[in-house]
Design goal:
homodimer, about 240 residues, alpha+beta, Arc Repressor Mutant, subunit A, 2 domains, six-stranded antiparallel β-sheet, two-stranded antiparallel ribbon, DNA-binding, Chorismate_lyase_/UTRA_dom_sf (chains A, B), DNA-binding (chains A, B)
Chain lengths: ~240, ~240
DNA sequence: GAGTGGTCTAGACCACTTG
DNA sequence: AAGTGGTCTAGACCACTCC
């Protein structure tokens, strides 16, 4: 949807880059040209270009122009340093999801969850445990916590489809930001069972707290990945604020 | 330095938040008020607020205002989910750095480096190996590669101080962005020796390619962390571009 | 209805790069 | 000197929230 102009321009140019109509090291048309071709003001063009820059598509250079730094031919390369944030999702392996448990508990059972979601001991929370399998092997075990109050209709059906789609499309909530933390841990006995594994008994643990656009914490997630299968990719820009 | 107004406003407000003059869940003065107090236009105020939002300080809400989501009292908490990007550096443990090797090689010796930095086989590159120690224990082993041409004056002295400061202050170059990749790997025999470890024989491997603001790749870095000591923290926003 | 943030405009001046 | 991006302005209209 997103009716605003700078998002449309962003989409159009980012598609052009991803589909190879602009290649790495190409220079985009100047802001002045883009103003003409899209028939918008310069600040609007600049908002689109800033989005492209934040998301790792281009690098703007004073006096020179906007240079494409994203290499679409690398899109499906696994081998080396992969590039780009939005694409990550697409590249992900296909997993089948199996909901192992979906139960309500009083929040006091899980002090970390209580703290992260700002709950009282007696508030009720869902605990959802899911296995993510790839070619018969469990690669990921997800443990999610939601407050029952905010998410009364949670079901294993939803849990095995897309929870986020349900949240945004059905509940009309908007997910805004999250804090993530990645660590390396030995498997617990329970995990040793959930991963019907043969390899080394270590996992990459990703803990995150997900917030809505009204800043309410909505979800506490602990995602355990088979350490040998885990890869995290990030594009980041250096902050020059001084 | 940065003489522009929105950066000054960003700095001022972010300091106010970090030093507790605004607390979590406080609402900042409205854009209209900020226009008056800083005597700038509204778009300028908005640029500062957008920066604060991208960096995890505030959440803007239509019709309501800008709410502080950053909790300064968590600044030095190690226990739980830590927050914020810029702060990460400050929180880092104190390490002593020991340069173990600094040598020039033809780029063809390191095909990955050659590819990432876009070099020819005969181009010369520095290989720099550094140990980062904390309380006598080696926690990190860094392997860095720079082209000799771009960084002729590299020395172990610089390598044990701050390379980035040298690059930006002395060479007048500006670091702009990087691609990172995190994986967990079994220690090689060499690493087993370098880390006089007791825990699990695994390392967190962070591979990155660092680019300058003219988009030239400048540095290839492989940073191996004692897996049991490794923690990566990220604040991220969900993209709603449709 | 009053106040908030979101988008967009037309124009200005500046700093940097390239010929 | 011409062309590029970086910053800033003053004003407009809209959508949302809260009373």
């Amino acid at each position: 949807m997103s009716l605003n102009k700078y998002n449309q321009i962003y989409r159009e140019i980012s598609n052009d880059i991803q589909e190879g109509r602009y290649e790495k090291d190409d220079v985009l048309p100047s802001e002045h040209r883009l103003v003409e071709t899209f028939d918008v003001s310069r600040e609007t063009v600049r908002k689109a270009l800033n989005l492209l820059q934040e998301n790792g598509f281009i690098q703007k250079m004073k006096g020179k122009g906007s240079v494409v730094i994203y290499d679409s031919s690398m899109d499906f390369t696994v081998s080396h340093l992969t590039s780009f944030k939005e694409i990550q999702q697409l590249k992900t392996k296909r997993y089948t999801t199996l909901a192992v448990e979906l139960e309500q508990y009083p929040a006091e059972q899980f002090p970390h969850v209580m703290q992260a979601l700002g709950l009282s001991p007696e508030d009720r929370v869902w605990q959802l445990i899911r296995q993510r399998k790839h070619e018969g092997q469990t690669h990921i075990v997800d443990r999610d916590y939601f407050t029952v109050e905010m998410f009364p209709g949670l079901s294993t059906k939803i849990a095995e489809d897309s929870i986020y789609e349900y949240i945004e499309k059905k509940l009309g909530l908007t997910i805004a930001y999250s804090h993530k933390e990645i660590t390396f841990d030995a498997m617990t006995d329970e995990e040793t069972e959930l991963f019907d594994h043969s390899g080394p008994p270590y996992v990459a643990t990703v803990r995150s707290v997900v917030h809505l656009n009204d800043a309410r914490p909505f979800q506490y997630n602990i995602s355990k990945h088979l350490a040998s299968e885990f890869k995290f990719v990030e594009f980041s820009r250096r902050f020059h604020g001084e």
